[in-house]
From TrEMBL:
Homodimer. It comes from Schizosaccharomyces japonicus (strain yFS275 / FY16936). GO terms for biological process: canonical glycolysis; gluconeogenesis; glyceraldehyde-3-phosphate biosynthetic process; glycerol catabolic process; glycolytic process. SUPFAM superfamilies: Triosephosphate isomerase (TIM). NCBIfam families: tim. This is Triosephosphate isomerase. The gene is tpi1. Keywords: Gluconeogenesis, Glycolysis, Isomerase. It catalyses: D-glyceraldehyde 3-phosphate = dihydroxyacetone phosphate. GO terms for molecular function: triose-phosphate isomerase activity. Its EC number is 5.3.1.1.
Length: 248
């Protein structure tokens, strides 16, 4: 099955109305290969609505985080139902910054993922090991633990994109080599095949994130299990366009 290449831009907690406007205008003016590549940007929550209103419609908008309840006394949280209502049709879950800084557990991430899917969102679910876990040879064990937690809750895998993001490669300038990424992506697909069945495994997009930039993105293309990228720092720069157009 041909999997549509996926490129997400995670703006993290960056930007101002002014800088955001410039990024949107540049994306709107660019010649982007959105027929071949599904493109999504994730601004901070404050800028979701204006981004959705001003950005070209062949680029999706994602929340960086979501909560597993519709409404109520959950101060500071993003309702998946409200996101869907506002045309924000994607969300990240389980980004390593959420897992490490905000202590989100595997189960909590899985709950939010399933709830967001129920509200009609597509979820970019992030997994990945820390440096200490990699050095202790626990990369696959950690990824499988995070995946098993997701599998315990998620019912519709066609609404999930898995982002493999080794924590040691995020925002550090230390990219995993394409070979290291492919090695883990193969294991993730093997896991999906065993746990979810061949059809789901074949269709599941597994994207890589961790210091991807305009200079290194092409190196990942030779591996068939790398179905795209989740881009942090470089998504705020003009080189994001080159990453989207990596096949050109
Ligand atoms: C991210 O935030 O998901 C990410 C991959 O960041 P960076 O590209 O800056 O490493």
């Amino acid at each position: 099955m041909a999997r549509k290449f996926f490129v997400g831009g995670n703006f993290k907690m960056n930007g101002s109305l002014e800088s955001q406007k410039k990024i949107i205008e540049a994306l709107n003016a660019a010649k982007l290969n959105t027929e071949k590549v599904e493109v999504v940007v994730a601004p901070q929550a404050l800028y979701l609505l204006n981004t959705r209103a001003e950005l070209r419609k062949d680029i999706g908008v994602a929340a960086q985080n979501v909560f597993s309840k519709a409404h109520g006394a959950y101060t500071g949280e993003n309702s998946a139902q409200s996101l869907a209502d506002a045309g924000i049709t994607y969300t990240l879950t389980g980004h390593s910054e959420r897992r490490t800084i905000f202590k989100e557990s595997d189960e909590f991430v899985a709950d939010k993922t399933q709830y967001a899917i129920e509200q009609g969102l597509i979820v970019i679910a992030c997994i990945g090991e820390t440096l200490a876990e990699r050095e202790a040879d626990k990369t696959i064990e950690v990824c499988v633990r995070q995946l098993n937690a997701l599998a315990a809750k998620v019912k519709d895998w066609s609404k999930v994109v898995i982002a493999y993001e080794p924590v040691w490669a995020i925002g550090t300038g230390k990219t995993a080599t394409p070979e290291q990424a492919q090695e883990v992506h193969v294991e993730i697909r093997k896991w999906a095949n065993e746990k979810l069945g061949a059809q789901i495994a074949d269709a599941l997009r597994i994207i890589y994130g961790g210091s991807v930039n305009g200079g290194n993105c092409k190196d990942f293309l030779k591996f068939e299990d790398i179905d795209g990228f989740l881009v942090g720092g470089a998504s705020l720069k003009p080189e994001f366009h080159n990453i989207i157009n990596v096949h050109n």
